[in-house]
Specification:
The protein is of the alpha/beta class. It has 8 helices and 12 strands. It starts with a strand and ends with a helix. The protein binds zinc ion.
Length: 246
C-alpha cells in the first residue's frame, strides 16, 4: 500500500496524525507530491519527520522552490511570499539543502504511475477545470498520475475509447477501483491546508497491485497548527483559514 501525500505546508500536527495512521497500516511506500513547507509555522520539525523516512518518491512544489531559491515567488500572494521568506530565514542549513535538492517535475514511481506537483509538465499549473485536466493528460504516458497544488481532492477519469472526461470527488473511506482502459489524474487533497471547506486533513492510500485507492479525511489539532503560525508571526489569515478549510 502506498501513502500519497501532498501540500503538507509545514503543518506539524497534521503530518503527525498521518504518520500515526501509516504506522498502524501496512504502508510500504511514502509518496510526496510537493509543498512540504510554506504557509505553516513548523518547517524544520516537518522536514525532520519527512527526511527520517528517507523518501524515494518526492517532487518539489512551487512553495518548496520559493523557500529554497530566492526570487522564484513572483506569482505568490503577499502572505505566501512573506511565509516563503520567513521559512528560508528559519530553516537549518541541512533542511535548506534538502529542499534545494528535491527533484523537479514529474517523477516515475517504479514504472507503476507518475507523480507531479501541479500539472505533469509544470509545477505552477493548477488543474482546476476539465479543460486544464484534458491538456494535462497529454503531459504524461501511462494510466495514472497523482498531482497536488490545488489542495482539492478529486479524480479526473479519461476514457479515450468513449471520448469522455469525468471528474468527481471520492467519498472518504470508500474504495475506488480504477478501470482498465481509462487514464487518471488524481489529487489526494492537502494534508496541511485543505481548501474544500472541510478543515480535516486529506490524503490517499493507493494499492497499485489491485489498482484501487481510498481518500482519507482525518481530524487533527487545528488550534496547535494555528498557534504555530501566530507564534512565528506569519500572516494571521494563514492560521484562520485552517479553521475553515479554505
Ligand atoms: Zn500547496
Amino acid at each position: 500500500m502506498d501513502l500519497i501525500l501532498s501540500d503538507i505546508h509545514a503543518n506539524l500536527p497534521a503530518l503527525k496524525v498521518v504518520l500515526r495512521y501509516a504506522k498502524r497500516r501496512a504502508i510500504q511506500r511514502f509518496v510526496f507530491l510537493g509543498d512540504l513547507v510554506g504557509y505553516g509555522g513548523q518547517p524544520n520539525q516537518v522536514l525532520d519527520l519527512i527526511m527520517h523516512l528517507r523518501p524515494r518518491f518526492v517532487v518539489r512544489g512551487n512553495h518548496d522552490r520559493a523557500c529554497a531559491f530566492p526570487g522564484t515567488d513572483q506569482f505568490f500572494s503577499m502572505p505566501a511570499r512573506m511565509a516563503a521568506f520567513w521559512t528560508r530565514e528559519h530553516l537549518t542549513r541541512e533542511h535548506l539543502r534538502f529542499l534545494q535538492e528535491l527533484p523537479q517535475g514529474m517523477q516515475d514511481v517504479e514504472g507503476q504511475y507518475a507523480i507531479a506537483h501541479g500539472a505533469p509538465r509544470d509545477e505552477d499549473t493548477y488543474l482546476l477545470h476539465p479543460r486544464e485536466a484534458l491538456a494535462a493528460f497529454h503531459g504524461f504516458e501511462g494510466h495514472l498520475c497523482f498531482y497536488g497544488h490545488t489542495h482539492l481532492p478529486g479524480i479526473y477519469e479519461l476514457d479515450e475509447v468513449a471520448g469522455t472526461l469525468t471528474s468527481r470527488v471520492p467519498e472518504a473511506g470508500s474504495w475506488v477501483n480504477l478501470k482498465e482502459g481509462c487514464r487518471y489524474l488524481i489529487n489526494p487533497g492537502s494534508v496541511g491546508q485543505p481548501r474544500d471547506r472541510d478543515p480535516r486533513l486529506s490524503f490517499m492510500t493507493y494499492d497499485p497491485d489491485r489498482r484501487r485507492l481510498r481518500l482519507h479525511r482525518l481530524e487533527y489539532d487545528i488550534g496547535a497548527a494555528a498557534r504555530g503560525i501566530l507564534e512565528a508571526h506569519l500572516h494571521p489569515n494563514l492560521a484562520e483559514r485552517l479553521r475553515h478549510g479554505i
